[in-house]
Task: structure prediction
Amino acid sequence: MKVFEDKIRFSIIIYIIIALYIVGCWIIFPIMLTSSVLGRVETLDRIYDPPSGTPEPPTIISIKTKDDIMLSGWLFPVASPKAWIIVLPDPYRNRSSMMSLIRWFTNQGYGVEAMDLRARGDSEGRFLTGGVIEAQDLLLTVNRLRNQVGDQTPMVVYGVSLGAVAALVAASQSDAFEAVIADSPFPSTANWFYGEAKRQGWLRFPGLYIAARLWAPIITGYRESGSNLKLVKIVGSVRAPVLFLTGEKDPNLNNQDVLALRSAISVTTKAENFPTGYCGSLYALNRETYQTALSDFLIKITTPKVKQ
Result:
């Protein structure tokens, strides 16, 4: 009798462990992972460098999105701008992190509008969506800027990581941009989500990554956050010249990905691959060659075409 009771107790303990494992790996931990990847990063709300060192001091701008989220940004004017460049940082930095590059842009004669992504920095919102809704935010941004500065100056969008994905998605939906500069875009939302799960150590739990993807639309309230946006299927509709800036050691974007993206785009593309750094650090670690790549690309966009 005692042996039978011990077996019952042991079975109950095993069932409890299995149940806890299932609840943890398919409900609790996936919700935590989704929130950590897509949710607001509170530290970005407090880390801002002063926007000094530009020809003119910036003005603070606000843009209301279609889902009533207020986006925040800086507008850096210059006299007779060669082009206006909309700058979108990567998802783990705010617009302040782009100040070194913004100073270079403005000193080269480009006006800049630097925006915080939704759920980042001073912009409202609780969650990112992997570039889909962010692309709609970008189109609102460029329309507002175009209404303010007129139709004569070229519009260029520069984005890093998720900001680069949003730029390419927006350019596939609109002819609002004369050019796109994409620094380290991830080839798909699944690729980015998987990379973040690996970086944060969550892949030790079988099934957790898949469950997190399934939970994403429920947690964020945006069905787009659970979609597997594949960039190579989208960029075929891009009709503006594109410059890809990538790092040789980027864990999320390899040379084959870049070749596939360039092949899918029917207009002119260029690519610059840097030996050091990847997403978010390419400019800081390869400043001179990075600036040269930007200059060579932008001069072709901003040079007036001679009529034959």
